[in-house]
Amino acid sequence: MDTPARLQPLLEQFDWACERLTRRMAGPTVDSGNGTDVDVPPLTDEEYLWEPLPECWSVRRKAEGPGPGASALTGAGEWGRDTASHPHPSPPPFTTLAWRLSHLSELLALRADHSAGRHALTREDYRVAGDAAGAVADFGASAAAWRSALLGADDTALDTVGYCTYPYGGDPEERFLDVVWWVNQELLHHGAEIALLRDLHRVRGSLA
What we know:
Layout: H1 8-26, E1 29-31, E2 37-39, H2 45-48, E3 59-61, E4 72-74, E5 79-83, H3 97-116, H4 132-151, H5 155-159, H6 176-202
Antiparallel strand pairs: 1-2, 3-5, 4-5
Helix pairs in contact: 1-4, 1-6, 3-4, 3-6
């Protein structure tokens, strides 16, 4: 099926953002933005779970229980991501790289399922990675699933309200094209946050 013309620029933006974030986490280099390659060390487990401030929300072993201010660890398996019932803490807690990457991968995987899958996955079904390599691989798999869902969307689907039934946002009340735009901005802004956390970790010894 041919990609609808109005989806093509969003798909190209998504592909570019995924590649840039993946290389920013896994290396060995990333484009600095002006065509120059900058060396990037692979993300380590220590950096993945690094808590730069007290009382961060993060990814934790369920046996250890949720972190400060959280009431639960969401996700399947041994690890979960800090969360709390509504109303969430205000101001919101600072979240680690692990929390942000898990959140991003989860929303891609769930939206893929709720667009072109069984329309059934929940946050409790998503398996949260407790290590850096697993988390980077999960991001790649989730991004590929969402991209596949996009490639299956024709012009009618793009205009369909509720084409995506993702239950943790306004998707059931939105045109699918608007959901696609929203997912791109989620990827771009969380990708930027992850890149900044990597920079802060690299210079952490000079911050005191």
